[in-house]
Amino acid sequence: MADLRQQIASAVEASRDDLVSFIQTLVQSPSLANDEGPVQNIIQDKLESLGLDTEKILVRFDKLKDHPGFSDDGFSPDSRVNVMGQWHNDGGGRSLILNGHVDVVPTGPENLWNKSPWSGSVKNGRIYGRGSCDMKAGLGAGIFAVQVLQSIGFKPDGNIMIQSVVGEESGGCGTLTNIVKGYSADAAVILEPTSLKVCPIQSGALTFRLTIPGRATHAAMRWDGVSAIEKFNLIHQSIIKFEKERHDSFNV
Q: Which CATH number characterizes residue 127's domain?
């Protein structure tokens, strides 16, 4: 086992420059929500170069809308795609999913950046650019994990599935699509940045809409109206209190 670990460590070090270059390429391909197609093509090409069976999976809201985990993020309901790559192994072992998303949050005013948010520049051992941390580096690392294992001739007993998904930043429609389509494994690693710490739990997210009724009135006769904003503030404070109680209930 120690010898295998050393082989892996040596192969990782030998792949360092290629991995950095690949992550730079991903960062340099802008992939805001609803515009992930070009970077997904890069991902698919890389997976195919490793000999994985690849598939593009169309994300369609009409197939998700009745699922309790669905959140309509307001983007295209039928033109975004996930990319899947499967490394099939017939050793009868347990299977593993490596999951990462390619969509990124908006850059904000680009004039506030020292360089283009899509530069992928390297400075002092860090890659800079939108999505470099969240989470193209993680996805790239997962893909190169397969490449490294292949380079030393190691073949896992179980299947490895790499999932490059869309829509994580705005509701999770990409991963939900994979779940609804039945793609599963014995375990999954979400390749989000965690300072290299294993995080076996997460708080999750809940998306919902509230309708707060009010009654309009003239500003000079405020007492005749009902402020929906003031009523919402009471609800908001209750949600904050509930969140704290929920988090405090976990001994972590």
A: 3.40.630.10
